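Dear colleague,

Following up on Tuesday's group meeting, I ran the structure prediction for the two-component complex that the binding team flagged. I've pasted the input sequences exactly as they went in, so you can double-check that nothing got truncated or mislabelled along the way. The structure tokens for the whole assembly follow below. Feel free to forward this to whoever is handling the docking comparison.

Inputs:
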Amino acid sequence: MRDVAIIGVGCTEFGELWDKSFRELFVEAGVSAIEDANVQGGKIDALYVGNMSGGRFIEQEHLGALIADYSGLASLHIPSTRVEAACASGGLALRQGIIAVASGYHDIVIAGGAEKMTDVGVETTTDALAAAADREWEGIMGATFPGLYAMIARLHMYKYGTTQEQLAAVAVKNHHNGTMNPKAQFQNEISIETVLNSLMVADPLRVFDCSPITDGASAVVIAPAEIARKYTDTPIYVKASAQASGTISLHDRPDITTIDATVAAANWAYKMAKLKPKDIGFAEVHDCFTIAEICAIEDLGFVKKGEGGKATESGMTALGGKIPINPSGGLKACGHPVGATGVKQAVEITLQLRGEAGKRQIEGADIGLTHNVGGSGGTAVVHIFGREK
Amino acid sequence: MSVPRFWRRLKNLYNLIGTHCEKCGGFFYPPRNMCPKCRRNGIVNPFKFKGAGVVVTYTIVHTAAKDYAKLTPYILAIIQLDEGPRLTSQVICDHSHIHIGLRVKSAFRRLGEESDKGMIYYGTKFVPMEPKP
């Protein structure tokens, strides 16, 4: 297995992008990643595209070919593969790209993700997203995604005394980080009261506890570490790439407040990187709902189980805190174009490690982690990146 | 959900029929035809659950998908059946009555409908076994 590095990154703005199509978004992100890496199109060996539900959102499948074609690569006939794991599709695409390069099968690979969610009405979007849960045994009973995470939140509050204010503190922090990210969907500050007074979606989760519906795309260029410096002075090395599965239904999870796929993926990743949770400087985690970030920092081992709410409230996960979480604004404020999210997390880590994150730059961090979850925890993908191999 | 996809599950949804592995004693609802513990060595047969259980966690859904919008706000819960397995369903009771640990029993109820003229889905929901304090 070869060491692998990210040599270029690109990301569109995230938001309700009425005048941009799916293919335009992906091409925009891909081209900016290629330009960032200073790679010629003819050098690209393969494409991996993360996308959850093109079939439902834009009534388009066969996205690998579409993207290769509109990226101007059809005449080169390079393989282009779409991968799907609900909201973890982007993380999976990244991992497939890394595996392809690490194995020696390909040298220069583009791993990207894209989702165009606003071409259909909110009801269709909600229903398409519900397909990440078990349609026959959760969806049919009236389960929604906020509903599933609300049940995690309710039990977390019951078992550990987590409060609504602590949930809200996640949203407040991530919105604050979003104010410093020019690509973020929401760049406005909110207060605890904003969250607590917002519309109830699924008790105890309110609108401001939920990530939004977003259009956007992200891409990275991956290369073998040995040639990375030919393209960039600041390659960012992949120290670990891990993916784990869990039960698709929340009700079958051994502990409903623990995403055990996250625990498994994190353990493999730490082992692969020969690191411990305390060695991680900062992380982009899957905060599709505020409770999801609290569970994530526990399941990744940054805090003890049950202490995620308190840690967030104490400022431990703020930009200047002990372990900054979601400097990009996370899914909550940067936005959550589901297929793009897992790749955007790697883009943010790369910018941070290069020292190019602008006002939200974290000082002195040299190791960053990404955590991307599909559904209520059926899939988890964890990557660890560093400035050194 | 398409008619055949729903009808295939009628006996499970109407009568709380899941499966049981006679090798390891595991109970499965929703039904599984592969025992996760014994896998290919399992002996998995249908099993009718009694329908009594306890609320493990719950939420009150205010914003629902289209087919359930008429029901909002409704209580969605994860229920652990006395035989062991956990499932997702709705609990029909006053919202001030629901709590973690509430004993519930199954009840045959309308799950939803596609439209005024479309399919009506029936299945198992749950009602409290204890009176409201």
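Chain B has a mean pLDDT of 92.

Cheers,
M.
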